[in-house]
């Protein structure tokens, strides 16, 4: 039905796909899994014709489609939903679906009559549970409803192969359940490929599973075999890291505590009733898969996102309603995901800017002493640094505010294994210097190697807390269902 | 359920929105009673309005930011002028004008729609200026700076005005129907999310190109009307400022729903004439009006009127 032969895709120097081959039979349910940056979305884009492979070929029903523009591939029967639901936001729900239907019929250019909701449109809207919302303008749909619309637009085209790119990402509770069921209930004749970070769901959905890692297929097989595959377990949990096993640091006084914290985006609630504590001098790791609410939690603690319910106590003071700059003044610092270097500044300028008006234990000189690598690169433009070095700058900037607590959001994101070790080294240095850190991380092993205590976040709730030596098993269980 | 859907599809604006539109038509026709300069200005507004409606369709609905519409306007004008000089009948000359503009759109559009966003703006601007230079320098054909005079022809101003308003209303009506067809809705979809509609199987290049041809033809027709109306064609009307003026009209009135462009053209033409009668700084006035519109009525003044007077949102 769909065959991918030795496909490679390079972006500049980065090889996102390195010789991927796979074959999907008619009516098959296939899940493609792998950690962040494994190349899953790139693979989907290449299959759909959005990206042209650097090498290799893609066949749809025996016909080579690589090199065709995506609209031709779509007309040949390949449907897809996007990771970020993006319908035509100013059009009504039924118009979105009707346009998809016209496109599949090759009648998009028809001028004869008005666009009308034909029975097929109506049927699909009922199938996905949006019939009641047919007249609503698409931008007013909830997050989950947008996914339903996205799926409706794919289904009305009656594709022979359907690619679903993370249809559950960012959904929680009832919406997650609803869309999960909708996908499981799709026409068994249709061939469906799914990329999903929720492994439990992906393994339930799939007849066969393909595991990607650094752009290569490292395993393929039935869900149970994949679950037990040591190589797969290793890429999710990592290997070669010594877990922090030292005796628990004597608990210092409490620095941060959240009680019944609820937060989200607009009407969507992401976090429900999160309770966590960080004590002086501790490194606390916050683990969880993509989209489980780690970044949202850090944003809520920092005040970038308003609390819906609950309270945050910082140094004994309720700060849950304070704006971010007031919390920063009290000694809370966030190292954001993605590092965010300033254009046109060199390393030293970045640091000086952060140190502006500050007096305390951390000064630019002290930071450069602790991070000799930055001292070497002090005159380099910060944008020209490697990912790991930029992460150092980002952390150094936070330290220069002389914080009482550093919040770090996925400092290893997008870094090579060597760089990840560097970041781990930095965090150990901070710990030795007596800093207090709350670390949200995807790289489980790295986090366990530096942490004193661990929280696991799932669907916006703390589902596990404990010491790092016990965390490995908990993570395996939570992530892979082993 | 289905009955509910079709009812909604058919329901246009409210009755009061209809009244507002008739008010606009009334404003266009009122100068017939006055004659003279007001009538001259009103015809000018109706013809520029047609070009503004075309740009509104292109920009507001198709999402194509063109800063080269003056070329189509000018090409339409020169085509009708030269055709009449060559002794062709008026009807044929008026047919050739939009065709010539559409041909230019085809040639440039093949390149323009290889790019997106700001680059479309720059390319259309560049092509527009190329046509301007050609008109300016090719004195043998266009008369260069001296312009091209159509003094021989005299059409009664009342007749010309009625025809101009008739064509304008027919264009607005026809295009509004077009926007409800699958083709029209697909154009809106392209503006909102081109990657998505492509992934559904729509070759967007041809949709944008066809829209470009259609709007160029309408603009060419407007240009031929302006040539007859002014009895004179100057190459300076092809300068990019004319394109910018059209864009200001569209932004003032509102780029969606097409009525806004008509209103914008009428407002701009009369405000400009009125203010320039007592100061040379009329540009300052129009500029302030645009700044205020952009700051306080983002969607344009017409949707604001529709909400204030028409009770409810425009159904653009």
Automatic annotation (TrEMBL), chain A:
Keywords for this protein: Amino-acid transport, ATP-binding, Nucleotide-binding, Transport
Gene3D superfamilies (UniProt xref): P-loop containing nucleotide triphosphate hydrolases
Gene Ontology BP, a term: L-amino acid transport
This protein's name: ATP-binding cassette domain-containing protein
Record SUPFAM superfamilies: P-loop containing nucleoside triphosphate hydrolases (SSF52540)
Pfam families (UniProt xref): ABC_tran, BCA_ABC_TP_C
Domain ABC transporter span(s) in chain numbering: 2-239, 256-482
CDD domains, per database record: ABC_Mj1267_LivG_branched (cd03219), ABC_TM1139_LivF_branched (cd03224)
Regions that span the bilayer: none
Similarity field: Belongs to the ABC transporter superfamily.
UniProtKB/TrEMBL annotation, chain B:
DNA-binding as UniProt keyword: no
Disulfide bond keyword on record: no
Membrane topology classification: Multi-pass membrane protein
Ranges that cross the membrane: 20-40, 71-88, 94-113, 155-179, 205-227, 233-251, 281-298
Predominant localisation class: membrane
UniProt-recorded name of the protein: Branched-chain amino acid ABC transporter permease
Species per Swiss-Prot/TrEMBL record: Meiothermus ruber
Keywords in alphabetical order: Cell membrane, Membrane, Transmembrane, Transmembrane helix
């Amino acid at each position: 039905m769909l065959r991918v032969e030795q496909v490679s895709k390079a972006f500049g120097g980065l090889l996102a796909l390195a010789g991927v081959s796979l074959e999907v039979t008619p009516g098959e349910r296939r899940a493609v899994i792998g950690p962040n940056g494994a190349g899953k979305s790139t693979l989907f884009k290449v299959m759909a014709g959005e990206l042209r492979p650097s090498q290799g070929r893609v066949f749809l029903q025996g016909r080579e489609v690589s090199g065709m523009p995506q609209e031709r591939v779509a007309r040949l029967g390949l449907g897809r939903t996007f990771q970020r639901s993006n319908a035509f936001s100013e059009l009504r729900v039924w118009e979105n679906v009707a346009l998809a239907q016209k496109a599949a019929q090759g009648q998009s250019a028809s001028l004869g009559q008005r666009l009308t909701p034909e029975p097929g449109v109506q049927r699909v809207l009922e199938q996905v549970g949006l019939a009641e919302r047919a007249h609503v303008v698409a931008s007013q749909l909830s997050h989950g409803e947008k996914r339903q619309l996205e799926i409706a637009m794919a289904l009305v085209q009656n594709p022979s192969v359907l690619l679903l790119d993370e249809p559950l990402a960012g959904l929680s509770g009832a919406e997650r359940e609803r869309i999960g069921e909708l996908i499981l209930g799709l026409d068994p004749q249709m061939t469906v490929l799914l990329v999903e970070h929720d492994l439990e769901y992906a393994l339930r959905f799939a007849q066969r599973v393909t595991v990607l890692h650094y752009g290569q297929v490292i395993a393929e097989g039935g869900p149970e075999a994949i679950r037990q595959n040591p190589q797969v377990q290793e890429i999710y949990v990592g290997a070669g890291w010594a877990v922090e096993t030292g005796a628990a640091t004597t608990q210092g006084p409490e620095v941060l505590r959240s009680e019944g914290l609820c937060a989200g985006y607009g009407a969507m609630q992401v976090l429900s009733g999160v309770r966590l504590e960080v004590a002086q001098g501790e490194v606390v790791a916050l683990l969880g898969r993509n989209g489980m609410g780690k970044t949202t939690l850090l944003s809520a603690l920092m005040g970038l996102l308003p609390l819906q319910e609950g309270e945050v106590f910082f140094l004994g003071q309720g700060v849950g309603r304070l704006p971010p700059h007031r919390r920063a003044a009290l000694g809370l610092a966030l190292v954001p995901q993605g590092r965010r270097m300033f254009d046109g500044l060199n390393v030293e300028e970045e640091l000086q800017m952060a140190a502006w008006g500050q007096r305390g234990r951390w000064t630019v000189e002290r930071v450069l002493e602790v991070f000799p690598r930055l001292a070497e690169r002090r005159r380099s433009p910060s944008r020209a640094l490697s990912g790991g070095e930029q992460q150092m700058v980002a952390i150094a900037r936070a330290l220069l505010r002389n914080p009482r607590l550093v919040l770090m959001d996925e400092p290893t994101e997008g870094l090579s294994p060597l760089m990840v070790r560097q970041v781990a080294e930095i965090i150990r240095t901070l710990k030795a210097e007596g800093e207090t850190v709350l670390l949200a991380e995807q790289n489980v092993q790295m986090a366990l190697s530096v942490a004193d205590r661990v929280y696991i976040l799932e669907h916006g709730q703390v589902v596990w807390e404990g010491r790092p030596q016990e965390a490995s098993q908990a993570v395996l269980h939570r992530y892979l269902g082993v | 359920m289905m009955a509910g859907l079709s009812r909604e599809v058919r329901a246009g604006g409210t009755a009061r929105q209809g009244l507002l539109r008739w008010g606009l038509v009334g404003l266009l026709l009122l100068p017939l009673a006055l004659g003279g300069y007001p009538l001259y200005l009103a015809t000018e507004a109706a013809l520029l309005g047609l070009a503004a409606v075309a740009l509104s369709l292109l920009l507001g609905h198709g999402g194509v930011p063109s800063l080269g519409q003056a070329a189509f306007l000018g090409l339409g004008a020169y085509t009708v002028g030269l055709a009449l000089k060559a002794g062709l009948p008026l009807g044929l000359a008026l047919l050739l004008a939009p065709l010539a503009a559409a041909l230019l759109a085809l040639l440039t559009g093949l390149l323009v729609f290889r790019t997106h966003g700001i680059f479309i703006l720059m390319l259309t601007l560049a092509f527009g200026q190329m046509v301007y230079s050609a008109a300016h320098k090719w004195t043998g054909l266009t008369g260069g700076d001296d312009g091209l005079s159509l003094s021989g022809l005299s059409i009664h101003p009342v007749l010309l005005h009625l025809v101009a308003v008739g064509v304008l209303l027919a264009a607005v009506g026809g295009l509004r129907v077009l926007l409800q067809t699958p083709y029209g809705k697909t154009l809106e979809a392209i503006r909102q999310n081109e990657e998505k509609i492509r992934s559904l199987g729509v070759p967007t290049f041809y949709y944008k190109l066809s829209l470009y041809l259609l709007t160029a033809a309408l603009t060419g027709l407007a240009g031929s009307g302006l040539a007859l109306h002014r009895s004179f064609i100057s190459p300076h009307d092809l300068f990019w400022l004319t394109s910018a003026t059209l864009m200001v009209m569209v932004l003032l009135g509102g780029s969606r729903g097409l009525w806004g462009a008509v209103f914008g053209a009428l407002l701009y033409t009369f405000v400009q004439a009125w203010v320039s009668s007592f100061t040379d700084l009329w540009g300052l006035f129009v500029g302030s009006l645009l700044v205020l519109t952009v700051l306080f009525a983002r969607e344009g003044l017409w949707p604001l009127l529709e909400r204030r007077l028409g009770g409810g949102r425009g159904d653009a």
